[in-house]
Design a protein that fits this description.
40% strand, mainly beta, 14% helix, q64v53_bacfr protein fold, six-stranded antiparallel beta sheet, 99 residues, 6 strands
Amino acid sequence: MNNDTNPFKGRVAETTMPTRVLHRFTKPGGHWAEIRERKVIPILGIEFIVFMDGSLLDSQLFYNGREPLYPAALQARIDDLLEGGWIEEHPAKNERVDN
């Protein structure tokens, strides 16, 4: 395909921002959950993302003055998992995950 007919010419591929694993949980039966965090640079925000068995379960974004609410919301999500029978593994050491 030459450059004159290439529909992708001039487009910049968007890459996702890397995340880091904050907490890992397991449950009998081989189930796992992770809470990951990423900095959202364009809007100067922070987000936590919950994955369960590889699927996105929840995401909360804090920006524009809501950043102080982040620690309590994160702790509430951790508490929900623990109350639901999940067992926290050794805390992740800020392992980076490139999506």
